[in-house]
Amino acid sequence: MQLKRYTDYSLRLLIYLGINPERVVSISEIAEAYDISRNHLLKVVNGLMEQGLIQTFRGKSGGLQLAKQPQKINVGEVIKYMEGNVALIDCQEPYCSILPACTLNRVLHEAHLAFFKTLQAYTLADLIKAKENKLLQLLTG
């Protein structure tokens, strides 16, 4: 399964904020660190705010910060929210003639559930712990 770019950027943004817990970080700084579009990040920020994962601050020294501790941000929940409820295949469009005898959809659904079950076992803290210094070094040059 390949994640949407939107989901990828969401996780990257959370990682960046997670390794910079003591300060408010600008969207431009994150965009520059990952070499991605500021406009794309603005959309991601809205999704993460809807989930209550980040908070924003306006003004000259405004920016973003995590709204929760990294250990309270579940990776599986973030991905599930950002990806939406998407089936791996659609047997109805176009209609598949072997559908009445096929088990592929059930097998893929089972794999999809296992994928999310694995992701549910991890938090943002798991993604950054023991690597914070290295991540910070790579992202700030």
Brief synopsis:
With 141 residues, this protein is mainly alpha-helical. The protein has helices at 5-18, 27-34, 38-50, 75-83, 104-120, 124-128, 132-140; strands at residues 54-57, 63-66.
Could you describe the 3D structure shown?
- The structure is a single chain.
- Helix content is 53%, strand content 6%.
- By secondary structure, it is mainly alpha-helical.
- The chain has one domain (5-140): Winged helix-like DNA-binding domain superfamily/Winged helix DNA-binding domain (Arc Repressor Mutant, subunit A).
- Strands 1-2 form a two-stranded antiparallel ribbon.
- Strand 1 and strand 2 (63-66) form a beta hairpin.
- Helix 1 (5-18) runs antiparallel to helix 4.
- The model has no long low-confidence stretch (mean pLDDT 92).
Q: Low-confidence parts, pLDDT < 50 over ≥5 residues?
A: none
Q: Helix count, per DSSP?
A: 7
Pattern of helices and strands: HHHEEHHHH
Biggest sheet record: 2 strands, antiparallel
Strand order of the largest sheet: 1-2
What is the CATH first-level class name?
Answer: Mainly Alpha
Based on CA atoms alone, the radius of gyration comes out at 18 Å
Query: How many beta strands in the DSSP annotation?
Result: 2
CATH superfamily: Winged helix-like DNA-binding domain superfamily/Winged helix DNA-binding domain
Shape: elongated
Mean pLDDT over the residues: 92
Residues in helices, as a percent range: 40-55%
Structure class: mainly alpha
Distance between the termini: 31 Å
Number of structural units classed as domains = 1
CATH architecture classification: Orthogonal Bundle
CATH topology: Arc Repressor Mutant, subunit A
